[in-house]
Design brief:
Keywords: Periplasm, Signal. This protein is α/β, with parallel strands linked by helices. Helices cover about 50% and strands about 20% of the residues. It has helices spanning about 1-25, 40-55, 70-80, 95, 110-120, 120-135, 175-180, 195-200, 210-215, 240-245, 250-285, 295-315, 320-335, and strands at about 25-30, 60-65, 85-90, 135-150, 165-170, 185-190, 205-210, 225-240, 290.
Length: about 325
């Protein structure tokens, strides 16, 4: 009896050990975008990551797209708790690592290539290390959500004066409220799910989002004018639980890190392609699109940046040093 029980106990322990080992060999990757790699930057990035990791290691990658595991804030929390190993997120990163919010200072990046140089260089490395220490999440690479642009139903916007009197839906984030205030508009924080109804009923005159988001969610059908001012460049953070990362072998770590870098590059490419296609598509469907000149962008920046920088310096405290570090990195990359 005792011998039989011991055999059963040993078998149970072995079974549990095998299950744990199998679980340890699986990387759960989650994001909120569609799964279609041809149209979704996060979708494309996730599939590239999966293919490289599974092709070069014994690890298995499971993808959970389209918010299947929750919104971005929830995904960040799950990654911190080890429930999800890898998350592709944008704005939610600043909620756990406030220094990341400096990337949302309006009109910081004159082009995507400057943003890439900054994020893939010493500044991006330093910010990633800082956020790792703050959150336990290792930033493997940066992807791209794209430049955000204003749309509205009333008139073409060429200067900040054209913003006056217009009500714009903004994310319920103080930084965006300060930005629209600085430009002379009337910011109205509204949840994403309520945006189409707010535009349809005239609760707000306009909104701001990347071109791909505007087209893929049919917001162009509710708006007449778009201004490609690119006021905020939104970066994707490809993060992994550092506890899980440290459990991998050095060879696996190397492949995972490489896969993330390639994935981020793929996401950027899909986003750039989608933006160009999106502009053509909204124009073909009747939307009027205006591209401001460099001088006009400078006028927008002169109005929006001081208000946001002042707000962030008050909010970040000691972390406000990241504002200066970012500005220095952008100046260097712009030479």
């Amino acid at each position: 009896m005792t011998f039989a029980f011991s055999k059963l106990a040993a078998a149970a322990v072995i079974t549990m050990g095998l299950a744990t080992a199998a679980q340890a060999q699986t990387i759960r990757v989650a994001h909120v975008d569609p799964d279609d790699w041809t149209a979704s930057k996060k979708g494309a990035a996730a599939h590239v990551f999966k293919n490289i990791v599974e092709g070069e290691t014994g690890l298995t990658v499971e993808i959970f797209p389209a918010g299947a595991l929750g919104n971005e804030t929830e995904l960040v929390g799950q990654a911190q708790e080890g429930l999800t190993q890898v998350a592709l997120v944008s704005g939610a990163m600043s909620k756990v690592c406030p220094a990341a919010s400096v990337l949302d200072i309006p009109y910081t990046f004159a082009s995507a290539t400057i943003a890439w140089d900054v994020l893939d260089g010493p500044f991006g490395d330093a910010l990633a290390q800082h956020c790792l220490e703050q959150t336990g999440l290792r930033t493997l690479a940066f992807g791209e959500t794209g430049f955000r642009n204003f749309t509205n139903n009333q008139r073409e916007i060429r200067t900040p004066d054209d913003m006056k009197g217009l009500k714009f839906r903004v994310q319920p984030i103080p930084l965006y409220v300060e930005m629209v205030k600085g430009l002379g508009g009337e910011p109205t924080p509204i949840a994403w799910t309520e945006l189409p109804n707010a535009l349809s009923t005239g609760v707000v005159d306009g909104q701001e989002n990347p071109v791909g988001v505007i087209y893929n969610n049919s917001l162009h059908k509710l708006q007449k004018f778009m201004t490609l001012d690119g006021h905020v460049y939104a970066a994707d953070f490809i993060v992994i639980s550092d506890e899980f990362y440290q459990s991998l072998t050095p060879a696996e770590q190397q492949v995972v890190a490489k896969a993330a870098r390639v994935a981020g590059t793929m996401g950027r490419a899909i986003q750039q392609w989608g933006t160009a296609e999106g502009v053509k598509k909204v124009q073909a469907e009747g939307m009027q699109v205006y591209s401001p000149t460099a001088d006009e962008i400078a006028a927008f920046a002169a109005k929006a940046q001081p208000a946001v920088v002042e707000y962030l310096r008050g909010e970040l405290g000691d972390d406000a040093v990241w504002i200066d570090r970012l500005q220095e990195a952008v100046a260097e990359a712009s030479k």
